[in-house]
Amino acid sequence: MKALVCEAYGPVDNLVYREFPDPVPADNEVLVDVEAIGVNFPDGLLVEGKYQARPQCPFVPGSEFAGTVAALGSGATGFAVGDRVFGWHMGSGAYAERVAALTTELHRLPALLSVAEGAALLCATGTAHHALRQRGRLQAGETLVVLGAAGGTGIGAVQIGKAIGARVIAVCSSDEKIEFAKSQGADLGINYSREDLNQAIKAHTDGRGADVVYDAVGGDAFDACSRAMAWDGRLLIVGFASGRIPTLPVNLTLVKGYSVVGVFWGEFTRKEPEAHAANMRELLAWVEQGKVRPVIDREFRLADGIQAIKYVTGRNVRGKVVVKP
Ligand SMILES: NC(=O)c1ccc[n+]([C@@H]2O[C@H](COP(=O)([O-])OP(=O)(O)OC[C@H]3O[C@@H](n4cnc5c(N)ncnc54)[C@H](OP(=O)(O)O)[C@@H]3O)[C@@H](O)[C@H]2O)c1
Questions:
Q1: What is the DSSP string of 128-139?
Q2: pTM attached to this predicted model
């Protein structure tokens, strides 16, 4: 099969589009003919060797895909050859024409989603869902501030924040990105390339601060939010797209009485499979109700996968990018 291969850790430009051995489904695994691959910011970090996981080279990066079941490994139940599925395979293997994934990593593709939308749903939206439900305990009527709100997981947080009934403030680096976030349900926008983020959050909350902040950006934006939290607020640590992992003077949490809460969706799916399954039922119900739906910004060919990853890590994306073999 054709695949995008990481021969050695280094720049995304070093990835090679070439023949790679077909995966063989192990016990409880299913072989999927991949029709679409969701691009995620960590894909770039993985091949640069800057991610938590470090697969042995050569390997195929990418974790999110949708397609058709081609074969079943021994003991694999719940799926049949020909089923339309989407899935998330921990860490690697997706930028290819075929992927082998555990049945527990697969879901049936809802009829109303395209294969591209299926490939774009799980990681970004699943992370936002887990963050806001389990980690953030977001309640209807609370104020949710979403950093990087036009990005993949940010737009998921906007949609899910509205599905839960929160007031959502989208924080973006351009007016055009704010308009995009508003088109997906955000009530208000803050352009943090020209507004003081701390002051703007306070101004939009009558001085109270944010109940929940969804931070996939880190750096200066985190610093500003750490001073704009409401009493009993929850500051969710999702990622560091800005490139700087911030440090926190913990006296701020004491004085303002808020919590800083880490979010790691991949570990959550493994450590809490029942809670993850319940989340998936709720997420797919929101999809059926039209409350949550991935927005596809662009599609690339698998042969152009390098450009697809760089488009995402280069701060361009509105919603999600998908790659097709
Ligand atoms: N914890 C988890 O389980 C989990 C799961 C998925 C993703 N993540 C992390 O979440 C972060 C966002 O992922 P994503 O897939 O949503 O990425 P994305 O679609 O590229 O969005 C990231 C957003 O961050 C903002 N940003 C600020 N400074 C940036 C910079 N220097 N370069 C690029 N973007 C910058 C951009 O918004 P503005 O231009 O508006 O600032 C951009 O829209 C990543 O760090 C990723 O590793 C974590």
A1: HHHIIIIIT---
A2: 0.96
